[in-house]
Structures are given as structure tokens and as C-alpha cells.
Amino acid sequence: MQLGFYFDQTRCVGCLTCAVACKDWHDIPAGPANWMQVQCIEEGTFPQLFVAYLIRPCYHCENPVCLANCPVTAISKSADNGIVTVDKDICLGQKKCGICKECCPYGSPQFGADADAAMEKCDLCRERWEAGKKPVCVEACPMRALDAGQMHLLEQQYGQQREMRGYIYHESIRPSLIPKSR
User: Among 54, 70, 90, 136, which residue's Cβ finds the most Cβ atoms within 10 Å?
Assistant: First the structure.
């Protein structure tokens, strides 16, 4: 089974409620680490303007490049649910390594303010899944632009679209995201 996200770009207004809820739920201190990022996409010139938003958590890829490139195997992928996690006790940190951040095309690996900070990232609220709940970002979204679940069920419900403004689907790593865009 592979868990993943559905994101409806047509509903997202960039309110950052998902990012704030994530930071609060996981007790992530104020600073550079944001497990759920929201990117603003601006295109065009006046009067033909386009603005949209894109969520940027870890997409828990089927073939994560962060896992393949970690020199100390601090990153693992669950065979049960496909969630990609990092063992902070093994991670060399951004000062000594940082390869995961360099190789991830989605910018998912995050580091705290400390120079020796270990990598951290979205874990799809693994403890919430184990309690039968969806990730906190999904429950917090006031526009209902987010959903999460088993990829095959998300595909049945929302389709198999792979394109969205500001997002590039990489077939070789297969990010676990079903996007909907304009």
C-alpha cells in the first residue's frame, strides 16, 4: 500500500492554515524548517495574470531519491504504507552532508536553524494514521483543497492527473500526489 496526497489547486487560496497546523502539531520551532510549504505561483503580465498555490510537503515518492542518495541510510520507506521517514540520530546533518536536500526535486528535506541540525520532513502524520485519522494539514484546510489516503483509492476518487502549475511529475521517482489544476 502507498499513502499519498490529493491537492486541488483550484480550491487553495494560499492561507497557510495547513502549514501552521503542521508546525503546531509537530512542535516545529519558529525558523527555517517547514514540513508543509505553500508556494505562490505567479505568471503572466498585466492584464493577463495568473496566481495559484502549490503545497510542498514530502510527496513520499515510490522511488525516493533522498533515500537512494543518503550516505548513512538515515532515510527509510515503510513497506506497509510507503511513508518516507528520517532517523535524526543517524543523519549527518546539513553541515556535514545535506545531500538529501540537494537531490530532492521538491525541496522536501528541511533543516532547523542549528548549523548541525539533522534533516526533518513531513512524515504524513504517521502517528495520526495509526490512530485512524488523516494528516493534520488535511483536517485543517478550510477550503478542503487537501485529502490523503491510499493512492489507488485517491486515483479512483480524483483521477490520475499528473500535471499542475508549478509542479513537475517525475516518472522515475513517482511522487505520491494526485493534483487537480485549472
Answer: 70
